[in-house]
Amino acid sequence: MYIITFYSFKGGVGRTLALANVAVDLAQQGRRVLLVDFDLEAPGLDTFDLFSPSRMSPGLVEFVSQYLETNKAPDVGDFIYKVPHIGGEHSGLWIMPSGRNEKGYAHALSRIDWDELYATRHGYLMFEDLKAQWEKQLAPDYVLIDSRTGHTEVSGICTRQLPDAVVLLFFPNEQNLRGLKSVADDIRAEAKTGRTKRIVLHFVMSNVPDLDDEDQIIEKRLKQFQQALGYSELFQIHRYDSLALLNQVIFTRERPRSRLAREYNALTAKVVQENPQDRDGAASFLKELSRQYDTVRLRIPPQEIEDRLAKIKSMHRNDGEILYRLAMRKLQDGTPDEAEELFSEALRVGYSVPRVLLMRAECRELLSDSKGSASDVWEAVQHPDLSDHEVERALRLIRKVDGNNIGKLTVSPALTALAPEAQMWLASKLKWSPAGLAAEAQLLRRLLERGGGALHPMVSTELALCEIGLGQFASAMKISNPERSDPNHWMQVAFNHAMAVWGDTGKLPRALFSQIVARDKSATEPHLNANYPQCMAIAYWGAGEVDSAEQFLEMARQRIAERPEEFSCWRYLMVSPKEFLIDIKAISQLIKGRNVEPAFFKAARARPKTKTPRA
Question: What is the pLDDT of residues 578-606, one digit of tens each?
C-alpha cells in the first residue's frame, strides 16, 4: 500500500481534478485504488458523477466521531464504498468520503477538536489503525488523499503522518510560494525526526494559461519557485478551456487522447515510478537509473538511491526481470560480485532469458572465473533469440575465456538464426587468431554455399583474407581473382591476390603491385584507417617505389595510435596497436632490403603436407 496526498496551499489549482484523473488512470491500469476525501471543510470527491454513491455514505467525520465516542477505532468497511464499472477482476476504485453531506455534517465536524484528539485521545495511533485497516480489508495498491488547503491540523496529518508521497500543486504567484515553502520544509523535516521518514515530493504547476511568455514572466517565477522549493523536476498541468470542466469530466477515462489526459498520465507514471512497491514502477525506475544515472542523482541523493534499490530487491525478490535490472545496475557500479549474485537469483526464479546468462558470463569473466564464464556463454548461444549485438558480446567473451573453441559459435543457434548481413558482420570480427580465422572461413563458406546474394563480393573478399592467414594461398588466389572482381572492390581483391601469389610462389608479383600503385595514385576516396597505408607501403615497395613506401609506412604508424585494434596485412590477423607497430618495424626492414618475410608465410609452412597417393 502506497499513500499519496494531493495538497495545495491555495484552492483553484485543480487539485481534486488531478487526484481524480490519476486515480482513474491507476485503476484502469489494473491497480486497486482507494480515494480518501480529507478536504473536510469543502469535500468534493462525491460530486463527480463517476464517484457519486448510490446512497449517502458515512466517511471520515463519522469515523473520527465514533472513535471519540467509544475510544475505539470502528470498522473502516462501514465508511467505504466501491465505485462501479472501474477496473477489472482484481482492480478497482473505492472511496472513503469526508462524510454524509447532510445538515448534521457541519455540526459533527465542528465537534472534532484535532488538537485534543492528538494530545489526549491518541489520535496518531487512531490514524495508524486506520491505515492498517485500509491495508487489511482492501489491500489497495494506492491510497490517494485529497487534503484541504492552508496550514491546519488536518493538512499536517495528510502531508506528514499518512503519506509516502505528496503531490504539491501550485499556481506560480507569491502567495503560493510563501505558503508552499513552509509546507515543503515541514515535509522534508520528517526525514530528520525520530521516524526518519523520507516523503517523496512531486511539484506540479497547475492551471497556468498556455500563453506566449514573451516577457518571461512565468520563466522568472519558476526560477524563484525552483530555488525556494528545491525541486529538480516539475510537472505542468495546463489550463484547459472547455465547458467539459463544468461537468467534472475525468479526462483519463472519457478523453484519453486530449493533452490534459496525457499530462495526467505523465504524473501517474512518475508517482508510480517513485513507488518501490509497484512492480512496474520499480522496473521504470531501474530503466531510468540505467539510462540517466547522473540525471537521477540530481533529484535523489546517492544514499537514498541505494536505500531504494535495497527496498526494490526486498519487495521483488522473486521477480526475475527486476533482479536482472538490479544486477545491471550493480554491474554499472563496478561491483560484478554483487551483480553475479543477482543474475544467479534471476535465473533461480525462472528468468532464463539468454541475456541473463550472457551478463552473468561477463561478471564471471571480470571475477576471473573463466570456466564459469565459458559455461554461461555457451549455454546462452544455444538460444536463437539473441540479437546480433548480443551475439557479438558472446563472441568477445568467448575470445577471452575459450578462444580455441570459437568454431562452435559459428554453428550455434544464436548465430545461425541471424540474417546473412549480421552473420557477415560478426564473421569479420573473428580474425584474432588462427582458430578465429578457421571459424570465420567456415562461416563464410556456408554463406557462399547459400548464394551470398548481394553480399557475395564482400564474403569472397573476407574469405580470401582468411585463406591467406591460414596459409591456403592457392585457394585464396582462386577466390581473389582481380580479373573477375567488382570494380568497386578491385584494389582490395588485387592486393590480396598479389599477397597470395607471393605466399604461394615465393616470388613478388611486381606487375600486379605496379597496377595497384597506379590505381592508388588516381584514387580520390580517402582511407582513414591504418591498414590501408600499411598495405600501400608493401605495394609501393613491391613496385620499386621505396621512398613512397616509407611515407605510407609512416602514415600507418601515426594512424594506429588512434585505433584500439587493426587488421595487419603482415599477419592477416586483427592485432593490437603494439603488435601493429611491431609489424610496421618488420615491413620497414623489408623496405630497407633486409631478408624478412611476412608473418603469415609461417602459417603455410606449419600446415601439414598432403601426400600424393600412389597410382
Answer: 999 999 999 999 999 999 999 999 877 77
- Asked if 503 and 471 touch (Cβ cutoff 8 Å), the reply is yes
DSSP track, 161-204: IS-SEEEEEE-SSHHHHHHHHHHHHHHHHGGGSTT----EEEEE
SS3 (DSSP) at 401: helix
Residue 474 CB partners (closer than 8 Å, separation 6+): 500, 504
Does the fold of domain 471-607 match that of domain 2-275? no
* pLDDT mean across residues, the chain: 89
Topology at the third CATH level for domain 2-275 = Rossmann fold (3.40.50)
* pLDDT tens figures, 275-310: 999 999 999 999 988 888 777 776 778 888 888 899
Task: Provide the whole-model pTM.
Answer: 0.77
Taking residues 181-195, what's their average pLDDT?
Answer: 87
Cell of 310: 535495497
Q: Give the three cell numbers for residue 272.
A: 508510480
Domain boundaries 471-607, CATH class: mainly alpha
Task: Map residue 258 onto helix, strand or coil.
Answer: coil
**Residue 372 · residue 407 · CB < 8 Å:** no
The three three-digit cell numbers of residue 185, written as one number: 520544509
What element of type H or E holds 252? helix 251-254
pLDDT at 211: 66
Q: Where are the domains of the chain?
A: 2-275, 471-607
C-alpha cell recorded at residue 576:
593490437
Exposure b/e, 99-121, CB count within 10 A at least 16 = b: bbeeeebeebbeebeeeebbeee
- Cell digits for 327? 544486477
Report the C-alpha gap between 362 and 364 in whole angstroms: 5
